[in-house]
Amino acid sequence: SQTIHQWPATLVQPVGSPLSLECTVEGTSNPNLYWYRQAAGRGLQLLFYSVGIGQISSEVPQNLSASRPQDRQFILSSKKLLLSDSGFYLCAWSVVGARGYTFGSGTRLTVV
Amino acid sequence: AQSVTQPDIHITVSEGASLELRCNYSYGATPYLFWYVQSPGQGLQLLLKYFSGDTLVQGIKGFEAEFKRSQSSFNLRKPSVHWSDAAEYFCAVEGNNDMRFGAGTRLTVKP
Question: How far is CA B28 from the centre of its chain?
């Protein structure tokens, strides 16, 4: 069966520090992968999506970047965190040609 | 691009009462519509989805939703709410390469 893993679950980082959040999918090949951010009291904002290795589309210009070094691995990064980067980050995947996403359990990031 | 509006930010209902959460979408093509539920600090769980066919779809946990093309709506309903239904609910519409979500409706259940 397909599963999605996201870590860490919680993270507290100082302003200006780097960030690396990792998401991996098991049990499927060539998934579409997504990073969403959920700020407090707000809905989900699509940050990045990827349809294949090395293929990244950015929805919102910001302090973050994404990479897909392997087929089932999706990484969200920042070189220098801002206070405004705090939020709940969700990774999701979908099957090419199918509809609907499966979400990971999320990472709560607090920038202090 | 597609968009979703959930007019109600917060709804409170008594346990055992009926529930309806509103969702309106905007999309130029055939919409693929979803309802997700999120418990505090958790990821999103799919409740139900609509692609085509019968406009009344059944989901998990006793939820159902009705697609009304003329009103661009996809409202979520439950006949009798349980305390465990307290959570945040998101309506979403999927386009070509992404899924857009509404701002969410937080449901509080009174004893």
Answer: 20
Contacts of A93 in chain B (CB under 8 A): none
Judge: A46–B100 Cβ closer than 8 Å, yes or no.
yes
CA pair distance B49, B8, nearest whole angstrom? 20
Interface probe with A: pick from B101, B105, B106, most Cβ of A within 10 Å = B101
pLDDT string in tens for chain B (111-residue length)? 788 999 999 999 999 999 999 999 998 778 899 999 999 888 899 999 998 888 999 999 999 999 999 999 999 999 999 999 999 999 999 987 788 999 999 999 999
Residue A102: both structure tokens together: 């499966």
Residue A32 CA from chain centroid, whole number: 12
Among B2, B3, B27, B6, CA closest to B88: B6
